TrEMBL record:
Gene source species: Streptomyces sp. SID12501
DUF3885 domain segment(s): 2-159
InterPro entries: DUF3885
Name this polypeptide is given: DUF3885 domain-containing protein
Amino acid sequence: MRFHSLPGSKRYPESEDEYAIVVDRYNTILDALFAGTDVFVVTMDWSNTPTGPAGYPTPRQILHPDSIRWWTESEQDDPDPEFHTHTRLYADQRRWNRGCVDGLLRAVADETLVEVFIADTELRCIHHPYDGGADVILATLAERDRVRDRHAGWLSSHPAGF
């Protein structure tokens, strides 16, 4: 399901008050999902080489300094090596505490960092924030309904839920 991070489905915060709303909404959902548990925090970047610098400016290393490279997914179907991409996922495990990823969440809200997710250690519950909201994937319909119903005012009014 998808939650919007600002009233009226506004995509980008324009003031410190709006940043506070965005970070609070992210944290409220994250608390509902992960309070008292360990989580994986995952960030990513990509490059045209397996070990080269990121292919775009990113604050990932500064905002996620304790992460380790978890996985590299290489796309090399094109015969021209210049068009090969290597997506690298970085992860750490930590105890969920409200505010422990606020720097990452604020960077996501600004779209200066993309492809972040927070998941339980069994990967049965995933929170994927993006600029404008967050997608949440839960293992059961009952879990989904419980979280959805508690935060119904943050859902999209679009019939498809976007």
